Amino acid sequence: MILGPLPPAAGGVPRSLHVRLDDASVAALKIVRGDGLTDSEAVRTALQEAAARRRARSAIRDEVRRVAADENDRQEMRIVREQLAGLAPPLTD
């Protein structure tokens, strides 16, 4: 598959890419093309969606690290856990 030029918003420099797809990738491309997209449009869409997911996961990881490093927040979470544990009904066997 040969992709056409990227739109100017994607960096301004047209670029083509030749890709050999395995069976799983062909099946995935069919799904993405299900909205009536061309191969090139489907691949660009999939790449943009994948990049957005990676950015979101990276932001979540950064937030987790920030919260984990915040000792005041961790202490507050411990207090809330203890309060909730006190409200829970006793376990029965």
Keywords:
93 residues, mainly alpha, elongated
Strand percentage = under 5%
User: Could you spell the SSE succession in H and E letters?
Assistant: HHH
Relative helix content: 55-70%
Please summarize the sheet with the most strands. Answer: none
Q: Which residues sit in consecutive blocks of at least 5 with pLDDT less than 50? A: none
Mean pLDDT: 88
Coarse shape: elongated
Task: Tell me briefly what this model is.
The chain has 93 residues and is mainly alpha-helical. Helices cover 63% and strands 0% of the residues.
Q: What do you see in this structure?
A:
The model has no long low-confidence stretch (mean pLDDT 88). It is elongated, with a radius of gyration of 23 Å. It has one domain. It is an all-alpha fold and 93 residues long. It contains 3 helices and no strands.
